[in-house]
Design brief:
This protein is an alpha+beta fold. The strands form four sheets. Strands 1-2-3-4-6-5 form a six-stranded antiparallel sheet, with helices on one face.
């Protein structure tokens, strides 16, 4: 069997495709990576833009991590929320098409599922939807923190597209690994609305007072948004602390058009 290698990366199976690039699993020694390969030389421009975006994110994650270590503050683990760009290059053996190489921290790509795929196949319970919503708001709060660090009132929010995310249900991983564009704004209203609407269309709310109260907040987010994602994130967890306490809840779901709930548990 002939194995295709690009530089030091072994190219594996095709796992996805967009209009301007294909996505492959790959390996670098024993480390699993994702390889995005432009379809043409001209299509490489979109991957170059993506590489620039992820380089900015990586540098700021390192800066925040260093500051937290020096101050003794608990780590925010932003590196768990964003894929890390290992390399971006024009490959002569592929007609100078651009290739972006990504890794993820503390897990591997084989344990991750495209968020839209899971959304299409399942419905989730209220407390499962909480941590997914919380992860999304934390990611968008990071963009606000990045803007504040540069004294910039205009924040570059990534466009909210579920296809830009991978999810690891058992370990509560949600990872931003694809850049489909960004928008500049001074408030997070539209971002919070879009995120909350996505969650509200996925979650199943039972006839339980705590779940009903949570859903009221979710609907409020979807209707009114918030000035910042940081504000929405803090408000969410204040309510959740009052309703259920802050603790691990296994990914609890049911397949579409079924009634039996199942779990994916970190300890299983």
């Amino acid at each position: 069997m002939i194995t295709l290698k690009v530089r030091n990366y072994e190219v594996g199976k095709l796992i996805g495709e967009a209009s301007k690039f294909r996505i492959y699993l790959g390996n670098d020694d024993d480390k699993q990576v994702v390889m995005k390969v432009a379809k043409t030389f001209e299509d490489g421009d979109s991957l170059a833009e993506e590489a620039s975006w992820f380089n900015v994110l990586r540098a700021f994650i390192a800066q925040v991590t260093e500051m937290q270590e020096k101050s003794g503050e608990a780590s925010s683990h932003y590196e768990w929320l964003f894929a890390n760009l290992l390399s971006s290059f024009l490959e002569p053996s592929q007609k100078d098409r651009r290739i972006n190489i990504f890794e993820v921290a503390d897990t591997d790509f084989g344990q991750l599922i495209p968020l839209p795929k899971l959304r299409t196949k399942t419905e989730v319970d209220a407390r499962t939807s909480v941590w997914i919503l919380g992860r999304l708001l934390k990611i968008y709060s990071f963009y606000e923190l990045l803007a504040v660090s540069g004294d910039n009132p205009v924040i570059r929010y990534a466009n909210f597209s579920p296809g830009d995310y991978l999810i690891g249900p058992e370990r509560h991983r949600l990872i931003y690994y694809n850049h489909s564009g960004a928008m500049a704004d001074v408030v997070a209203t539209n971002c919070v609305k879009a995120i909350a609407q996505f969650i509200s269309e996925w979650v199943v709310i039972e006839n339980d007072p705590a779940e009903q109260e949570y859903y009221q907040l979710l609907e409020d987010f979807a209707t009114n948004g918030r000035v910042t994602c940081e504000e929405a994130h803090a408000e969410l967890y204040q309510l959740i602390g009052e309703l259920w306490g802050i603790q691990y809840h296994p990914f609890t779901y049911r397949d579409q058009d079924t009634s039996r709930w199942k779990t994916m548990n970190e300890e299983e």
